[in-house]
Write a structure and sequence with these properties.
about 160 residues
Length: about 160
């Protein structure tokens, strides 16, 4: 999608540039590489495109990427595809894998150890969507780039 970026020569905003990154991952060691891609993508948004990315967003996007890629590697055969894209002030983290079953967040259980990743991702993100594809599924989680002035970490508006 498009993100307004500054033209270095004229210091004017340009809204026709596509800002995204993608990679395929196959092994569990690639989870750290997925986090590095997310960190590099967000750093480049600031240094190359002049887009403000809060420290909170930097950490949250890396966490979301880590959780979604980990689940994909754990439960789906074959590779997973990660795409990071800027859309209207948020980073959309999209993970596709070959497993058609959609994940389900488990009911709260203080005695349960582990398997809280999906709950955490859903709580942190501005939006969270799951879609079955002709092959596999696609999960899209959106994280706001800037901090919300009213302190709502997921960026939802309180009315």
């Amino acid at each position: 999608m498009e993100v307004p970026v500054r033209d270095e020569m004229t210091d004017e905003l340009i809204a026709d540039r596509l800002v995204m990154a993608s990679a395929a991952f196959e092994g569990s060691e690639d989870i750290a590489a997925a986090r590095r891609l997310a960190r590099s993508f967000l750093t480049d948004l600031t240094t190359v495109h002049g887009v403000t990315v809060s420290d909170r967003a930097l950490g949250m996007v890396q966490l979301v990427v880590s959780e979604l890629v980990t689940n994909s590697r754990k439960y789906a055969p074959g590779p997973c595809l990660l795409t990071l894209e800027v859309v209207e002030g948020v980073v959309e983290v999209t993970v596709w894998d070959s497993e058609p079953c959609l994940p389900v967040a488990q009911a709260a259980d203080p005695a349960r150890v582990g398997q809280h990743g999906l709950e955490i991702v859903m709580a942190l993100c501005r939006s969270f969507e799951m879609h079955r594809e002709p092959v596999g599924k696609r999960i899209v989680a959106a994280v706001a780039l800037a901090d919300d002035p009213i302190g709502d970490e997921a960026g939802d508006r309180i009315c």
